[in-house]
């Protein structure tokens, strides 16, 4: 039975009960230990082998084809899998990835009454717009995928948008492409600052999820009109409620980034954060073509997604590839082997650049201009 909680007397109270909070914090501590202490030993072990040192040297030389990189990464995966500390480090990562999702559901369920009450409470209007399309079909590439080992599918669980417990585990960094000790909030702002122009007036975030990245865009472009689009209706509902609560005026639209509903040449800047690795390369090509269509001449796209294998050392490439099968990210491998710079040039973008802002190739930025 759901617990009774008096949140009206303390609006700042946490939306996770102490027992769940403690459990999630332990998982965060395990993730941190695995990503720092264990991982640095695993890396040393890998490089101390003759084959590991050779693979690292070859990879650092660069200029390899995607096929050569794939072959090298596969050889490095086999080698790493033979090393005990690496196996323990990956065991902890997998355990945390699974357990975190279950504990998050428990933490949400034990606060069901609170969430229902919050959802029923009118919020101060910021004047934004929420455009839902519940009949919109999910794309074929979602078939059978429970991204990030989520125990419930997209939009299949009424409290699916209440995921604050996961943030408690991930706040230390040290998962997927995000290095340990990362400040993800500050990095989001840093990436938004990669737009070349400072006076963009209409900015669209494709695959916005909720509004965390839109809030970062608002910090850098406080006067810009903001639009967010995503397939996931629940994330948008949740994000819209938060936007209205914090006074951020946004338009949130449930749609596929391949068909944004925006007119030709009507957008000054398109931003994406952690979107492209969730879709096959061919779908990303369609997304880039749609972005080209809606941008005005001189408009910009800035992308932040996991770094390509070619931009990180061979051991980091092993870690990135692992997410494909172990954190249910089925397009991670093919997108890390892709080259967004070449894809954007092929569509007609100019001034295309790809570069890292921090260590371990993260955050990795790709930016371009429509001529
Ligand atoms: C990892 S989340 C990132 C969310 C957000 N950008 C952020 O910074 O927190 C990826 C998002 O991309 C969305 N997505 C995946 N494929 C999409 C598509 N074809 N069109 C629109 N959104 C998509 C998912 O629903 C999900 O919300």
TrEMBL record:
Sequence ranges assigned to domain Methyltransferase in this UniProt record: 203-299
InterPro entries per record: Methyltransf_25, Methyltransf_Superfamily, SAM-dependent_MTases_sf
One term of GO molecular function: methyltransferase activity
Gene3D superfamilies, alphabetized: Vaccinia Virus protein VP39 (3.40.50.150)
Alphabetical list of CDD domains matching this protein: AdoMet_MTases
Pfam families: Methyltransf_25 (PF13649)
PANTHER family per UniProt: METHYLTRANSFERASE (PTHR42912)
Name of the protein in its database record: Methyltransferase domain-containing protein
């Amino acid at each position: 039975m759901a617990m009774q909680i008096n949140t009206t007397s303390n609006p700042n109270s946490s939306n996770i009960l102490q027992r769940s909070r403690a459990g999630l914090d332990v998982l965060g501590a395990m993730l941190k230990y695995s990503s720092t202490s264990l991982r640095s030993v695993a890396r040393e072990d890998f490089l101390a082998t003759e084959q590991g040192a050779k693979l690292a040297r070859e990879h650092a030389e660069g200029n390899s084809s995607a096929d050569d990189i794939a072959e090298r990464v596969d050889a490095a995966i086999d080698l790493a899998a033979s090393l005990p500390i690496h196996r323990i480090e990956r065991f902890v990562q997998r355990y945390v990835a699974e357990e975190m999702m279950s504990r998050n559901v428990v933490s949400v369920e034990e606060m069901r009454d609170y969430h229902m009450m919050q959802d029923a409470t009118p919020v101060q209007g910021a004047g934004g717009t929420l455009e839902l399309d519940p009949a919109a079909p999910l794309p074929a590439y979602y078939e059978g995928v429970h991204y990030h080992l989520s125990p419930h599918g997209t939009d299949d669980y009424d409290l699916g948008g209440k995921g604050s417990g996961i943030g408690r585990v991930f706040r230390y960094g040290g998962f997927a492409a995000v290095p340990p000790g990362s400040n993800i909030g500050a990095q989001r702002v840093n990436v938004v600052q990669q737009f070349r122009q400072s006076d963009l007036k209409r900015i669209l975030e494709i695959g916005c999820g909720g509004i965390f990245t839109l809030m970062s865009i608002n910090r850098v472009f406080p006067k810009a009109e903001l639009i967010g689009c995503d397939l996931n209706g629940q994330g948008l509902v949740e994000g819209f409620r938060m936007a209205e609560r914090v006074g951020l005026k946004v338009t949130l639209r449930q749609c596929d980034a391949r068909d944004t509903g925006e007119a030709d040449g009507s957008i000054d800047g398109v931003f994406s954060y952690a979107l492209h690795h969730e879709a096959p390369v061919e779908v990303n090509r369609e997304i880039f073509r749609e972005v080209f269509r809606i941008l005005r001449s001189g408009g910009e796209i800035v992308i932040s997604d996991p770094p390509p294998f070619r931009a990180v050392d061979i051991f980091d490439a092993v870690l990135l590839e692992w997410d494909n099968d172990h954190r249910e990210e089925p397009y991670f491998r093919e997108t890390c082997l892709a080259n967004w710079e070449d894809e954007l040039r092929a569509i007609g973008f100019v001034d295309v650049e790809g570069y890292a802002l921090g260590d371990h190739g993260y955050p990795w930025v790709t930016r371009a201009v429509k001529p």
